[in-house]
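Recap slide: Streptomycin biosynthesis protein StrF, sequence and predicted structure.
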Amino acid sequence: MNDKKVAFITSVNDEELYEESKFYVEHLIIPEDSEIEVEFIKIKDFNSITSAYNEGIRRSDAKYKIFMHQDVFIVNKNFIQDILHIFNLDKNIGMIGMVGCKTIPVNGVWWEASDCLGKVADSHIGSMEIINFHEVKDIYEEVEAIDGLIMITQYDIPWREDIFQGWHFYDVSHSLEFKRNGYKVVVPNQQSIWCIHDCGRIELDFSYEDGRKKLLDEYAEDINTLKVT
């Protein structure tokens, strides 16, 4: 893999929204003398986010891959430098997210945990607000799962499209896949928010509960083992 390349991989069905998201990335600071190359991988016409992201892996040889929603705007100008710094601190860090939980609840819904960490600007309730979970005390803290708004990796692990054909719980699944492979999943310390997630009001349908059941069918033992340890 090319350790001088950072790929931004996005599943797109709204070109205007994607172009706005891409605009923010294009204005990030590239670390001086790093020889870092940024590439954009736009995935269209896929039935699930897992299949789209697997296609992104096939299309890019970048060591560092940022899987992000088309409605995410990165406002931390030093984002690239900051994520590379975290990865360079520990080769066992496999994935970084903006918000997550240290203990996945037994129902699989990460944000219902009492030990959520991180921060993000988000509009899922219909208006934009800053979501502040517990502060990350060091440069980063290890978590069990992160939210799928943006998932930053330095190793390629296949997304479980064999299980998740929709748009829910793929993020908890991928967090646990990294854990299964012996890697850490972390949330960084953010003095101010790194990302805006302008998703709009979220209405959950039957596919949400279907995804939750699939998560528990596959990972119940992982979740329970993590709680014991």
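The chain has a mean pLDDT of 93.
The chain has one domain: 2-228.
(End of recap.)
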